[in-house]
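Reopening this one. Same input as before:
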Amino acid sequence: MDGRKSETGTSGTVEGETAESAGGRDAEAVSRFVESFAAQLVEAGMQRMPARVFAALLSSDEGAMTSAELGEQLRISPAAVSGAVRYLAQQHMVSREREPGSRRERYRVHSDQWYEALTNREAVLKRWEASLREGVTSLGAGTPAGRRMAETLAFFEFLDGELAALMQRWRTHRGRTFGP
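Same output, byte for byte:
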């Protein structure tokens, strides 16, 4: 084997393996994907632990895992899971749900998480636009800094309009490709 204990745990899986690996997945391949995709998210600016938790959730068949499952798969502490989930929930990339009849929470990534994350950015763009308008006024539209600020404002206004149209095209494409 790979050096892990070969004792069977209470779930019937080999200790150190997840239920998914016992269900036909190559646990090492899944782990490599999670770490590789997380590294790409980190390179794009996401914090490391939220990136790892998001990639793990995204790669799970159910799209939902408990804190204990995430901690076991990623070999991280409950506090690390909690902090990562808090960040991801604030970014509208995951949601929390209670298991029926249990106090345990499950963390879920939805099939429309990219849409939700981008849509949430629309509010941020609006705030930036308001701030940039104020900057143009404060700096003076005719000054070099004011012109730079005005061009930045125009870019964000353009992006805001294009993002709305892009998301509508995505919804249409998604419906054709994956059904309603």
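So the earlier flakiness isn't reproducible anymore. For the record, Helices lie at 19-22, 27-43, 48-59, 67-74, 78-90, 113-139, 144-178.
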